[in-house]
Amino acid sequence: VHLADHPLHDLDRARAAGPSGQDRTSLVFSAPNRPGAIHGLLEPMARHGVDMTKLQSRPARSGLWEYVFYADINGHREDPAVAAALKELNERAAFVKIIGSYPVAAI
Asked: What pLDDT, on a 0 to 100 scale, did the predictor assign at position 18?
């Protein structure tokens, strides 16, 4: 089940939810338009053992051949491995927005 499949009022609960032990985190990020950029952004996820369950690209409004990526990852943004991977992603990406972390079973 993905966050996009649920009403917007569930977003507020997702943003405020603490770790449950079975969580998912949804985020959006962008990569600079250069060879290997997306690999560099995803590498911290692999190194920290964070499982990505969804990755979609959409054209960015900013220009031709620019894309934003929507991702779901297993784990809560407060989990140590997830937090470390997101910190590195934030340092490398042109843009990062954490949509929210939420219990998988509750939504």
From this structure: 85
